[in-house]
Amino acid sequence: MIYQSIIKPLLFLLSPEKAHYVVADSLRWMMKIPGVKSIFRSLFQLEDPRLTRTVFGIQFPNPVGLAAGFDKNAALVDEFSNLGFGFIEVGTVTPKAQDGNPQPRLFRLPADGALINRMGFNNEGLDAMKARLAKRTSKVIVGGNLGKNKVTPNELAEEDYCLGFEALFDVVDYFVVNVSSPNTPNLRDLQEKEPLKKLLSRLQALNALKPSPKPILLKIAPDLSNAQLDDVLEIVQETNLAGIIATNTTLSREGLQSESSLTQETGGLSGKPLTQRSTEVIAYLHQHSNGKIPIIGVGGIHSAEDALDKLRAGASLVQVYTGFIYEGPSLVKKINQGIIQSGL
């Protein structure tokens, strides 16, 4: 209630990117005050054996995670671990640090409960992320979301993903191959059947050399056709991938209520306009794989019911991002309460 009535209106007076850094700095500062971590945990965490999920060989304390993009540099893993998340996905990280696209590059569409971003994989690079993750004190499950540098041509993209895999192998619990962001030129071309199969096969070959291989997942766009989704399923099964994250942001602007000056901004759209499409993709993948491929559902989760819809459609786990910004940190606990009440 405090978030909706006081904190959110104040944050929404700031530019979206400025608000993000204010939240990050405030969280970092508050968690250093004695007793504050315990207060946050009592407010937002819900521990219940009915929430435990074992997915792709990992036991999650609850099925609600923080999607990639919120903590791009793994700077707040310990802080976010006190907000009730069952897991946190960091990144997208690229081998070398890069500034991303020019600002402004993040836009709120309050009338639609949405965001448009064209951040462009702004991050501090693999070395910085690895150093932070090696020092973390919380035991929260962490996924590493891997991308390629903007200057790396697609024909050399495999090298960037392999560098990320090797660098983070000892400090994350699972990996995500991100070839579905619309904000790095030509990146989505890597979702095509042949380059995708080649990339994933190479990563799995590296994974097989490890004494204890780690789950590798593929994050896909919501804008794929059914034929393309069929190709994804075929490749995931052929390369023995651990699962799929459905979905990333969309290029569609269909049905938006916000003023055209906002809706015409380039970039990926997230939030409520994505709710239905991402659930449709989850359902399609689940049905056409006979439920054999684990799916993390993400896209437009603004309520417990939104999350339950994705779980009913076939997701094993869910992630929040834009809904977390619009609804506040209580969303995680509300979803977990809804899961218990539903018996899912």
Q: What characteristics describe this protein?
A:
single chain, 344 residues, alpha/beta, TIM Barrel, eight-stranded parallel barrel, three-stranded antiparallel beta sheet, 13 helices, FMN, DHO_dehydrogenase, cell membrane
What name does the CATH topology carry?
TIM Barrel
CATH architecture identity: Alpha-Beta Barrel
Mean pLDDT: 96
Order of helices and strands: HHHEEEHEEEHEHEHEHEHEHEHEHH
Large-scale geometry: globular
What's the domain count? 1
According to DSSP, the number of beta strands is 13
Query: Could you tell me the radius of gyration in angstroms?
Result: 19 Å
Q: Number of helical segments? A: 13
Tell me the fraction of residues in β-strands, as a range: 15-25%
Structural class: alpha/beta
CATH class: Alpha Beta
What is the CA–CA distance across the termini?
27 Å
CATH superfamily: Aldolase class I
Largest sheet, strands/sense/barrel: 8 strands, parallel, barrel
Description:
Pathway: Pyrimidine metabolism; UMP biosynthesis via de novo pathway; orotate from (S)-dihydroorotate (quinone route): step 1/1. Keywords: Cell membrane, Flavoprotein, FMN, Membrane, Oxidoreductase, Pyrimidine biosynthesis. The protein is α/β, with parallel strands linked by helices and about 350 residues long. It has 13 helices and 13 strands. The chain has a single domain (about 1-340), classed as TIM Barrel (Alpha-Beta Barrel), CATH 3.20.20. It has helices at about 1-10, 15-30, 35-45, 75-80, 125-135, 155-170, 195-210, 225-240, 260-265, 275-290, 305-315, 320-325, 330-340, and strands at about 55, 60, 65, 85-95, 105-110, 115, 140-145, 175-180, 215-220, 245, 270, 295-300, 315-320. The strands form 3 sheets. Strands 3-4-7-8-9-10-12-13 form an 8-stranded parallel beta barrel, surrounded by 5 helices. A 3-stranded antiparallel beta sheet has the order 5-6-11. It has a two-stranded antiparallel ribbon with strand order 1-2. Strand 5 and strand 6 form a beta hairpin. Helix 11 (about 305-315) packs across helix 13.
